Amino acid sequence: MSNKKLKNEVVKTHRLNTALQKLSLAEIRLMQLAIIDARETGTGIDTVTPLPIHASRYAEAFGVTRQTAYEVLIEAETSLFKRYFTFLDERDGKPVKSHWVSQAKYLDDEAIIEIMLTPAVVQEITRIDAIEAKTLFTRFALEQVAPMKSVYSVRLYELLNQWRQAKKVSFDLDVFRGQLGVEDTEYKAMSDFKKRVLDLAVKEINEKSDLKVSYEQVKKGVAIAGFKFKVLTKAQPKNAKQEAVRDVNTADIFTVEGLNDKQLGRIVRNPAFMAEYNHLVTPTSPAGQSQQGWEFEMINRLKKDASEFKKRPIREYLEY
What we know:
The chain is α+β, with helices and mostly antiparallel strands. It has three domains: 1-146, Arc Repressor Mutant, subunit A (Orthogonal Bundle), CATH 1.10.10.10; 151-235, Winged helix-like DNA-binding domain superfamily/Winged helix DNA-binding domain (Arc Repressor Mutant, subunit A), CATH 1.10.10.10; 248-318, no CATH class. Helix content is 39%, strand content 20%. It is built from twelve helices and eleven strands. It has helices spanning 14-17, 25-41, 55-62, 66-82, 119-126, 151-161, 173-180, 190-208, 261-269, 271-277, 286-289, 291-304, and strands at 9-13, 20-21, 51-54, 84-88, 95-99, 101-107, 112-117, 137-141, 168-172, 211-220, 223-233. It has a three-stranded antiparallel sheet with strand order 2-4-5. It has a three-stranded antiparallel sheet with strand order 3-7-6. Strand 10 (211-220) and strand 11 (223-233) form a beta hairpin. Helix 3 (55-62) packs across helix 4 (66-82) and helix 6 packs across helix 8. Residues 1-6, 130-134 and 240-252 have low confidence and may be disordered.
């Protein structure tokens, strides 16, 4: 598949999206390309097949010169191999560390870097396609973050995009710093953190992406304990494709009347349903932690009031 045919959509589980990590801007860009290309081409979607990323692919995606792209790939052969992230084990809630790649090789004559994704990364970008998917996921178009010049802007966008539908989210300060990739020794003074990380990121997101965000401090006594964000989606241009207006006479196709629990279970496990309604639960709730919790919550909501599920006819989720 040619690069031009790629959808350039980054898709990963909430767990990977909210992991504690420390990547440079070039490294996070490479991982975004790796996630996109692995899913769209099928190459490198396992832990034994090298995934090639050409310098021209990087240059085109992020609007940099070929020379800059060459330098990024050469540096990434060593730097990306050393990077790791920390996430919580689903079984016991304990922190687990994993590298992003298990192998990296730069092919100088072809200006290509070949990487192998680790099992943890492969799991978090592939299992979301399964009907039996156990986690919810985050997705966004690469074009929304490609123009950003700060790695903190990119990471904040990724984190806030997860809460686009909910329109608000709060972060505890210590975890938030780790999710953004800020070291314990960096920007220790709150004034420095806000000026060089948070305010810079918010400004760039508001100027260059499809989100409009703002925040306020959350205090515990006199100390700042975290931040509460408001997340809004900017209005689409007038020439953007508009969602078809459904005839009021077809309202019955948005009910669950006549469907049994087995059919409702198939509906709520459908990846499309999960993507369109994952904003209704939080990652820390039972519904956001397991397949069983998700099914129980969503089936009950459908039975109680199916009117909140109108993004497409309910029975359409049974068709695939």
